[in-house]
Specification:
Elements: E1 2-7, H1 16-26, E2 32-39, E3 42-47, H2 51-56, E4 64-70, H3 74-86
Antiparallel strand pairs: 1-4, 2-3, 2-4
Length: 87
């Protein structure tokens, strides 16, 4: 399992279009991929293959999220997703 923290670089955060693109990226990998975000003491977790789960994170521009992947291509998945989230 690999986990990396990244700040959302998209100027509108993880809005619908950015979340849809993220779902497309994660479907290229066999690994299980989740996004994690702490918000006011609550810890939120989202399956990166679910657009609704990603939108419910409410990750605006500059918000810090953790990308966690577990599987045979986890390193490549985390690198790709973090690069995308940088904006």
């Amino acid at each position: 399992m690999i986990e990396r923290q990244i700040a959302i670089g998209h100027r509108m955060g993880l809005h619908a279009r950015a979340a849809a693109k993220l779902v497309q990226l994660t479907r290229q990998y066999d690994s299980e991929i989740v996004l994690l975000r702490s918000n006011g003491g609550k810890h939120l977790e989202a399956d990166a293959r679910s657009i609704l789960a990603i939108l419910l994170l409410a990750a605006g521009p500059g918000a810090t999220v953790a990308v966690r992947a577990s599987g045979k291509d986890e390193a490549e998945a985390v690198d790709c997703i973090c690069e995308y989230l940088k904006g």
